[in-house]
Amino acid sequence: MINAAIVGLGWWGKTLVEAVQGRSEDIRFVAGATGTPTPEVEEFTKAQGVVLRASYEELLADANVQAVVLATPNSMHVAQIVAAARAGKHVFCEKPLALSKADAETAVEACRKAGVSLALDYNRRFHPTMVNINERIKTGALGTMLHFEGTVTFPNALYLKPNQWRAKREETPCGGLMPMGVHIIDAAIELFGEVDEVYCMSFHRTVAIDADDTTSMLFRMKNGMSGYLSTMTATAGSFRLQVFGSAGWVRLNGMTHIAGASSEERRSRLFADCTFQPVKGETENWQAEAYDVSRAALEAFARAAAGGPAYPLPLSEMIHCVAVTEAAVRSAASGKAEKVL
């Protein structure tokens, strides 16, 4: 059993605690810290048996804490990871790992040097439906892969206040790319390998805050196939991933982590109806099972930190995903396709 500290106790930090506290035999939260210690946070941590500390530094000095789970603003991740690694703490970080490839490499190298585990919360990788699609691709059941398409929408930006960190362009460039679009990019990397270049258009259409709410991206993969991703942060929630091969296509529909939904729904009901349409043969339809991807990701991290199997997201893929998002941000600014460096 790994003793962990939760850092950041907004709605998603609380969700991570709820995923495992009193449920898991691999990880438990014993302490926490937040930049906004409100009465609501104090009530939550007391109910969960989590000791609220005054600062991140105090958590890192706690010998009872073996790992930290970061649910903090994007720009804080790298410095927090480096500090945790130096303190000998394993790190589970919310996505994105960093906002630049150079910073991602710094975070990864700090953990390598310290000999601690680093996990990144691309939790959809753990869902049985994603495993199913991966197996179909790897076994050749879909033929030669041609193209993928992803669409991620959610209304969260409609309710953001200008002083919230998620409302700041420097924290979330290209609108929905960092909070949710990166899940599609990570899926593409897992399923098809590295991205060669990306072209991105990102606009502000309707939200009250100074942020983009409508973003579209085209991808060229190194294996020759193409891809498309759209994110919108000012409409009803949805999540769709479709992959096309010469033998047929697979499509999965679902939902995003919408603030205000129940914790159980945010963790366990991300995918819904799925379809496999072969070029020849009968259509296959199924309903994705309810599966707590947050618990699965945290437990995989805990097992890795305890000396078990490595966390099933290679460090090289963590870095490459950041390189892709960095290229997308460059492309939105330049108006040109940008190589992934």
Key terms for this structure?
341 residues, alpha/beta, Rossmann fold, Dihydrodipicolinate Reductase, domain 2, 2 domains, 9-stranded mixed beta sheet, 6-stranded parallel beta sheet, 10 helices, 15 strands, globular
Largest sheet: 9 strands, mixed
The residue ranges in which pLDDT falls below 50 over 5 or more consecutive positions are none
Question: Could you say which overall geometry the principal axes of the C-alpha atoms support?
Answer: globular
Total domains, how many?
2
Structural class: alpha/beta
Tally of individual helices: 10
Reported by name, the CATH topology of the largest domain is Dihydrodipicolinate Reductase, domain 2
Overall mean pLDDT stands at: 96
Proportion of beta-strand residues = 25-35%
